[in-house]
Amino acid sequence: MIPSFFRHTPVLPGFGASFGLSVLFISLVTLLPLSGLLLYVSHMTWAQYWLAITDARVVESYKITLLGAFYSTIAVTFIGFLLAWIISRYDFPGRRVIDALVDLPFALPTAVAGITLSALFIPTGWLGQWFAPLGIKISYAFPGMVIAMMFTSLPFIVRPVQPVLEDLESEIEEAALMLGAHKWQIFWRVLLPALAPALITGASQAFIRSLGEFGAVIMIAGNIPFETEITSLMIFIRMQEFNYPAAAAIASVVLAASLILLFLLQLLQTRFLNKL
Length: 276
Known about the structure:
There is one protein chain. The chain is an all-alpha fold. 76% of the residues lie in helices and 0% in strands. The protein has helices at 15-42, 46-53, 56-89, 95-101, 104-107, 110-121, 128-131, 142-167, 170-178, 183-212, 215-221, 231-240, 244-275. Helix 9 (170-178) packs across helix 10 and helix 10 (183-212) packs antiparallel against helix 13 (244-275). The longest helix is centred in the first third of the chain and has 34 residues, at 56-89. The two termini are 33 Å apart.
């Protein structure tokens, strides 16, 4: 007899062993490092903790990181959606190559990506030479940081949206067209509601990924205090200064922000799915 707490008929036997191994893995990989972080913070007084996380340079890094992640998420959501649409809806020479290149940020070390982007967008680079006459500086400036975040977070948009697009049956669009709907009405009222959960998930993960990006950003941003320093870099700087409690304090702020965003994402997805 199947226990009542199973939501579906189980295929793999041994709930106790599976649950135990899952909890052990989460504990070792996630909870144990977090415990070490909290251990460092626990040795600080509230005044020391507040001083560490509200330092003027650190606060400015919060603003820069959030602003860069916000801009990159907006841009990469639009670009990622177009890529997923092209890969899913059209068959053309080189389609498989483009599909494979989407996963390049997962395979390429972020430091290598940062160096490559920096070389491309310097005033004498292949791409930077077109922006230099316009007075637009990308490498070692805020725009370069945004581009690095876009590069590393692109797969988080394409991969959740692509399978949803592939599963949508063309008959639905044809039926809407036969009923007199225009193409934009089909997109807004038929396709977008079906794609919204995947887009929300991808955009949220891309935003969280951009908040924690380090290697690619520091290679292209220039790391100018109060201009292009990100929060991850401030954690690294405090560690270089052997101020581990301050580094842990700043990391705890990033951790709290990420957990809150993940919780809000889960809540938003649950409410959205309940309305469908």
